[in-house]
Specification:
Its cofactor is Ni(2+); Fe(2+). The protein is an alpha+beta fold and 140 residues long. The chain has a single domain, classed as Jelly Rolls (Sandwich). Helix content is 24%, strand content 35%. It is built from three helices and eight strands. A hairpin with a 5-residue loop joins strand 3 and strand 4. The longest helix has 14 residues. 17% of the residues are buried.
Length: 140
């Protein structure tokens, strides 16, 4: 995606329309820009899940999303300017900055945003059970 022109990017506009991403904001994760920076960085790095998809579009900077594979092993996904990721509801994950200690990201939601993170273990939520069912079906 064209992060330099995200406000007018037709590709982003089409993704938002097709996926019904009706809400968005922009967050800058940097010690000089984010209130309670140290606390938030620790929270982002705690392994957790959400009951809704997590959609992030990197407008500047870089970082890593770590996700668990079907065998519960970590997979590190490097994210940089122009990248977009959708983490499905129920997937355990965490986020960390790289050595640049800076990322500016667009957060997208279907409907009103829900920021609640459920730290592991959170296996009893329907979103987690649905995600595990999806993994089992994909394995066959």
């Amino acid at each position: 995606l064209d992060a330099d022109n995200y406000e007018t990017d037709p590709c982003l506009k089409e993704i938002r329309r097709a996926e019904n991403y009706s809400w968005m904001d922009i967050v800058t994760i940097h010690k000089d820009k984010l209130p309670n920076y140290e606390e938030k960085i620790k929270t982002f790095y705690e392994e957790h899940l959400h009951l809704d998809d997590e959609i992030r579009y990197i407008l500047d900077g870089s970082g890593y999303f770590d996700v668990r594979d079907k065998d519960d092993k970590w997979i590190r996904i490097s994210m940089e300017k122009g990248d977009m990721i959708t983490l499905p509801a129920g997937i355990y994950h965490r986020f960390t900055l790289d050595e640049n200690n800076y990322v500016k990201a667009m957060r997208l939601f279907v409907g009103e945003p829900v920021w609640t993170a459920y730290n592991r273990p959170a296996d009893d939520f329907p979103a987690r059970k649905q995600y595990m069912k999806f993994l089992a079906e994909e394995a066959h």
